[in-house]
Amino acid sequence: MNEKVKNTSIEYILSQGLVKPQTARERIAEMLRTIGFRFIFWDTGYSLFFTAVTLAGILVLFSFAPNNYRCSAAVGVAPLLFLLITLFAETSERACGLYELKQTCRYTIRQITALRVICYSVVGSVFTAVVAAISADSGYEFLSLFPLCLSALFICAVLGLSAMRFLPGKWVNAVFSAAWAFVNIVLPFSLGEKWEAILRNIPIVISAVLAVFGAAVLAYQISKMLSEVKKYAVAQ
Amino acid sequence: MLSLSNVTKKYGSFTALEDINLEFSDGVYAMLAPNGAGKTTLIKMLATLIFPTKGEILWNGDEIVGLDASYRDIIGYLPQDFGYYKNHSPREFLLYMSAVKCMDRDRAKRKTDELIDLVGLSDVRDKKMREFSGGMIQRVGIAQAMLNDPKILILDEPTAGLDPKERVRFRNLISSLSKDRIVILSTHIVSDIETIASRVIMFKNHKLFANDAPAAICGTLTGKVYETDDIAAVKVTYLALTEHQENGKTVMRFASESDCSDMARSVSPNLEDVFLYIYRDETV
């Protein structure tokens, strides 16, 4: 057997014997095809309703925010859709008696949560754009405010997802949401106009880089959640 | 074959299970032990909800952690507290679970209808589950565990909260499902397993105490179990097991290491006797 035949044979054997690991994109496509949107968001109707009601209330308050605090208010409000929807949907998911059971299925609920987070992030980005548009007086102000709000959204999403991934317990999302809200209330109230000035003085390039970096970290986390081997304990 | 090799599970300094070695092939394996003995810990390890501190769990020679989704593909699990969606029908719920189990839609529909019939819920297949009794919910639980036609069916305290009629129905169902798969169930209700288990697994002091056929386990007490309606006449040390009424008299069943055949009637031991005898020092 000459070298060429040997190499071809080895390549053939390897191609037959090795299963190429699925990429995150392939996994997402497979999950969407198999589970479908209906079942990915199964029984989240109440959570969406509570999110809408709470958000409506917050937006009413937001409309009364003084002009000299517009930037702090926008940055505080921008991640709220994402925060509230994960708070309600994922807390009820963890609290319902099926969480453990769903972790024993081919697609674990954690992988399904990763898919949901993609959707929440997309919807959250649209909401962020709306908040920035409402808050901005001019096109330039929108361009400076939007990446800032987007950075806030992605930082919130990355931290929230990390909490979900690495911390056990039913109330992880609730505790994280409370902590995020607390920080976003305390900062503008304690620093006052200084906080507003800090935000307004962040260059567009910096906030844009921060937003892109946040989105990249979020995408990395989501792909990890989708493809990780389940060796984390779910139960006590 | 599913096997556990030197499996130990610790929670901090507390050892829930120590050095467990077990092998499972097709049949019904019943884990019988008092509450807190480690049954649920083992069940949760088999269902990949927690992982051993030491040792390994192997499916056909491969560690189940490494098998990941392909192991989850072959298990069906019914947890002790089976939550359910009150606002959905069993059919909707089973279709949802089959999607999460990665079954194609046609197979899912066929299997859902088949299992609803099997567990006797055909008449209520489209009714919301909030109207269901505990037994009906448990049957939905069994059906969801069977959706992917699992090679390993893991049931944690499946008869808890069922009335006697439903328990009988459940036993028959498990028996019919165990033909070509491993069924592992945990219980502390002896009557659940006496007739259907091919092997009984018992734990004591968080270690494996027995793993044998029910008859062989009962055989360990042969010649030590007696019945009498005059317990005062028994002058040797004995362990009271159960009491029942017979011809208007209270008959006591007891176990003794000494020969009591002149004071009482020797009877064949059953699993309940063995259970009470083995766990006599524990709160049951």
Question: What does this entry look like structurally?
Answer:
The complex is a heterodimer of chains A (236) and B (284). Chain A is mostly helical and 236 residues long. Chain A has helices spanning 3-17, 24-40, 45-63, 70-77, 80-95, 99-102, 109-135, 139-166, 172-191, 193-200, 204-227. Chain A has one domain. In chain A, 79% of the residues lie in helices and 0% in strands. In chain A, helix 4 packs antiparallel against helix 7, helix 4 (70-77) runs parallel beside helix 8 and helix 7 packs antiparallel against helix 11. The longest helix of chain A has 28 residues, at 139-166. In chain B, helix 4 (90-100) crosses helix 5 (105-118) and helix 5 packs across helix 6. The longest helix of chain B is centred in the middle third of the chain and has 14 residues, at 105-118. Chain B is built from nine helices and 14 strands. The mean pLDDT of chain B is 91.
Secondary-structure map:
The complex is a heterodimer of chains A (236) and B (284).
Chain A: H1 3-17, H2 24-40, H3 45-63, H4 70-77, H5 80-95, H6 99-102, H7 109-135, H8 139-166, H9 172-191, H10 193-200, H11 204-227
Chain B: E1 2-11, E2 14-24, E3 27-32, H1 39-46, E4 54-59, E5 62-63, H2 64-67, H3 69-72, E6 75-78, H4 90-100, H5 105-118, H6 134-146, E7 152-156, H7 164-177, E8 182-187, E9 199-204, E10 207-212, H8 214-219, E11 225-228, E12 239-246, E13 249-255, E14 265-266, H9 271-278
Parallel strand pairs in B: 3-8, 3-9, 6-7, 7-8
Antiparallel strand pairs in B: 1-2, 1-4, 4-5, 9-10, 11-13, 11-14, 12-13
Helix pairs in contact in B: 4-5, 5-6
